[in-house]
Write a structure and sequence with these properties.
20 helices, binds adenosine-5'-monophosphate-propyl ester, seven-stranded mixed beta sheet, acetate-CoA ligase activity, metal ion binding, ATP binding, magnesium, alpha/beta, ligase, GMP Synthetase, Chain A, domain 3, globular
Length: 647
Amino acid sequence: MSENVYPVPANVASHALIDNDTYLSMYKQSIEDPNAFWAEHGKRIDWMKPFTKVKNSSYDYHNVSIKWFEDGELNVSANCIDRHLESRGDQTAIIWEGDDPSDSENITYKQLHERVCKLANAYKELGVAKGDRVILYMPMIPEAAYAMLACARIGAIHSIVFGGFSPDALADRINGSKAKLVVTADQGLRGGRKVALKTNVNAAFEKVDHDAKILVVKRTGGDVPMTDGRDVWYDDIVGPASADCAPEPMNAEDPLFILYTSGSTGMPKGVVHSTGGYLVYASMTHQYVFDYHDGDVYWCTADVGWVTGHSYIVYGPLANGATTVMFEGVPTYPTPSRFWDVCEKHKVNIFYTAPTAIRSLMGAGKEHVEKADLSSLRILGSVGEPINPEAWKWYYEVVGKKNCPIVDTWWQTETGGIMITPLPGATALKPGSATRPFFGVQPVMLDNEGNEISETECEGILCIADSWPGQMRTVYGDHDRFVSTYFETFKGYYFAGDGARRDADGDYWITGRVDDVINVSGHRMGTAEVESALVAHPKVSEAAVVGYPHDIKGQGIYVYVTLMEGEEETEELRKELRNWVRHEIGPIASPDLIQFAPGLPKTRSGKIMRRILRKIAEDDFAALGDTSTLADPTVVEDLIDNRQNRD
Ligand code: PRX
């Protein structure tokens, strides 16, 4: 595949911040002398008390500990707002583009400062103090960014729950973090449809096991029930609040936020990110990966409910004094031209989205792209899942007109920022390859036994050999789980959970998860979570969930269910189970295909053989591999006969 190489376009190379020689020398220093490298780059943000120590990390399984800049003090909101006031107070910080194309607002750094300070004071009035947790269950409105930054200002720890999660999932996270406050809106607005946020919060509160308050932004003006003494309208408390709020000095290692994410086992984990290392890493990757220049308009289409929204809509761009676009809607509303119309309207220079969006817009036809004037675009980005070469080429040719490098950025909730990626002015591109590591990142390829593969060209398990500043620090409330999830399987390395191929040039091609995590439209999901939701249904006795290739979503959710004795396999029940999962977890977990399976393939010790289930779901049952360990081989024939994903 290496013959398909796209060199750095000349128009980008001549102005880029980093060329190839600079990349190579900076990368070398970052690995050979991380203390010197990060001491220098740690100064890119403002410290209230400068750090004297830089890296202090151990991947030793018995003593995993990660600290960066550990004696420094800073405040993230001061870095994202206050330090820009003098030089760019009147520059737009956030361009908000509403769901309705006629709805948009430019918010300057000065306005951002005032609004965040007022909200921070309102938090204090509601009893939120340094170290307290605040849950945000928000639509994509500017108040979501204010709510994050106001937490950072007073040292509260935010935990955003994506607005597509169900009341149950929300309640788990409110309880798990013992949050004092939930910030939400009356309703969200997406693709012309209303999302019942406050109603969901009310339902969640039936399961909340401690006292907490609810702060409600009026977005649609819809009629939502409020409870006296617990619920407060945003405008009522933020309106009269003082706009004077000094930023709280925080230790570099104090948590900035918790973000729940799915793993291969058990319920989602609260990934904890730090204040200092995280901000250094988010801002540096944002600047170099997107070749961000002062005055550029930058748009990341993610939702703030995911890590991409944290690092690359809010913290990275604002720390760099950027103009960042925040989009409330969906790519296809009111028409499949929406993304491109917004690019034209706001003269977007840098555009960062997910392959699933590219694939669905590709299906809508290139006439929707060609209608818009996209001459402002300079850099394109991709994140969330491997981008298939066909989608890459369409993105490059139809959207980027062969002038815009595509940065295919591999990273994870846990890594805080981008890990493997091209740099626009430095890296030749290969469709489907995330190419090379960012500064300070040491990818290694391991075989199944955990030995490092020394050959350049190889396929294996992707691990990272040493710490970088943006790395997660722990699992909230469960450091043992942090250690066992990421440092136990392959001792001495950070285990990312992905497989990869390294080509003869040393470029990395991510091949997908090697664990029981699936990636549906760029949303990460643990198959165990969906299974546990299904077995909670009274008619289900057993369930197994696997991913299968899906043209638009990347992976779809394929469910095998064994029903309780006497239950009938009907279409009606399929619908009921689908709704059940939507209700238990949220619409993003809705099964695509459900197969009733009187028996599941198990080993004699009772372990479900997922390898076989995956193959059947892929409609690739000729290659089932070794089935000799099955307790009952006839089960497989029945599964094949009744498979749901036939050509
Ligand atoms: O499997 C990888 C895939 O997404 C996973 C991380 O998901 P999440 O924590 O939700 O973060 C998504 C946004 C950073 C990874 O383990 N992934 C992410 N980016 C890429 C990718 N797979 C291939 N290529 C990418 N560029």
